[in-house]
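quick one if you have a minute, typing this from the bus. theres a chain ive been looking at and ive put its sequence and its fold in token form underneath. please have a look and point out which stretches look like helix strand or loop to you. anything you notice is useful, everything is just below.

***
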Amino acid sequence: MKKMILVFLMLITMSYKASWANPESKISIVNNGEIFKVIYNGPTRSTVRLTISSDDGQEIFAENIIGQNFMRPYNFSNLPKGNYKLCVIDQNGEHHEKLCYREKRQWTARISELSTPDKYLVAIPYQGDGEVFIEIYDHNSDRLIYNGTERIVGDFGKIYYIKGSEGPLTFRVANQFGQEQILLTEPD
């Protein structure tokens, strides 16, 4: 019985050491329009094979990188829009990611002054789920009147009641991708 417990403890210790000695690699992808940034954080310095292929399996690009941590930008501007596959192979195995290269749509927001005094409608047609950041300033004094974050799921519309402003207002509306619009209301 003691031998069996000893063997069991040795197996647990060996499997713990094996998992500790070979932690997983971490791969992140950041898409900014035509540029896909691949961020790799490995447990140790090694050779990493990175390939990008089309949806039908045709290899578009491949390279071997020696290192532990790296960030590589890949420019898709000369490729047709569509889906691509990223494959990263290192000492921990293969990691696959799907890359969706789409046309970047123009982001729009609209401001309308309502017939009721001091009320303004901020309207944003559906352009994907996410968040928008809205700031409202008194245009003459640059004084911040309102600052807020709104969650967007579908079309968005909200009425803002801005009491006591003297003259036009400046609305700054930005999405989570850094696209923004600065809109000015008409002076009274």
Observations:
- Residues 2-21 form the longest helix (20 residues).
- The radius of gyration is 26 Å.
- The chain has one helix and twelve strands.
- Residues 11-22 have pLDDT under 50 and may be disordered.
